[in-house]
Write a structure and sequence with these properties.
With 413 residues, the protein is an alpha/beta fold. The chain is 52% helix and 9% strand. The structure holds D-arabinaric acid (RAT) and zinc ion. Zinc ion binds next to loops.
Length: 413
Amino acid sequence: MNNSIEKIVSDTINEIPVIDMHTHLFPDSFSQLCLHGIDELLTYHYLISEATLWADIDYQKFLMLPQKTQAEFVWEELFVKRSPISEASLGVLTVLKELDIPFSKDLNDIREYFSKINNDDYVTYIMNKANVSSFVMTNNPFDEEERKYWDQGVFFSSKNFIPALRVDPLINDWENASKTIHQDGYSISEEIDTSTIEETKQFLRFWVQKMKPVYMAASLPWDFPKKDYETLLLEECVLPVCEEYNLPMSLMLGTKRQLNPDLGIAGDGVGQTSFAYLEQLCMRLPEQKFLITVLARENQYELTVIAQKFKNVMLFGCWWFLNTPQLIEEITTMRMDQLGLHFIPQHSDCRVFEQLLYKWSHFRQTFSPILAQRYQRLENQGLTITKETIQNDVEQLFQGNFINFTNLSRSEV
Ligand code: RAT
Ligand code: ZN
């Protein structure tokens, strides 16, 4: 491989800021929901499910423990008793390195370093260090805690925190969602009749106007749609409101929620999605844009082909269990083969701020040789590859595809 291409690609990938188009992060004005620090990092659900494999503990009792104690358990099992070789554990080490915190087996040493970080605008500091220009949140109007902030009139210190209206409770859990909608003063019945549909749309319009989301989003289980009313809610309530406000719909497909319910949020699994319904939805609604990601490795090829057939589909991310170097390499190579530059290669799904530091640096590291190899092949065909060519392509992947697809204006990010 031509050394200079490898270097230019890796420099460019590191230089170009990314728009992180799906996270669970909140700016500091959402105080309790803006998570950071070592105890939050260690109690990330990816690490909890890994650490609890090692000890004979009762999951439910474990999840009742104070966060500090849970963090100590994870630290002990994954970082002290053995080497932290999984992607999520390596991530913690990358965070420490990026923050110049030396590794010590004594967790209190690390806690002390974190407590000494004195930065007025820590969120911006981390975003700059991770080279993330803006991030899309997950804003859930069915979440009691989050609603408090919206009710108080939440304040965004920067336009780089972009809301997204999350609606899966509506589609996946009508029983509870209908209670919230009812409590909010809309007159709905349990049966989804015409008037309930209209009132539910009013509820959604209210939240679109309040949150000003860049898209609506739902994570749907691997066996969706299971019941008729789920597609009714999606097609008669959610998508018509998307259409009114010209919003793309983001679909994250393939979770097997609560595969092990004792593990709480760490207990979700994966199942293979059948695309028949989705394919006809994309076909029937050519004006509705869909951002789509899918969790099962076995589904990646089929989804790539769907994304090649429909202009209204933008494929994104190597999600959750797929966010490992080996799978990113495999999936991204396939996507480039079939779609060229027409996809969004990654989103972070971060829940804790400092995770931006590892999720994006690990991704950039994996992505860089994959892209460099492409340019090498182009050069072998006689094309001249300049820094500008590479910048243009990486900008497309890291920002442009998302901006264009969602109609965000460049000045908004
Ligand atoms: O990747 C994750 O962290 C999962 O727990 C889910 O939150 C998933 O990303 C989702 O948005 O449903
Ligand atoms: Zn997520």
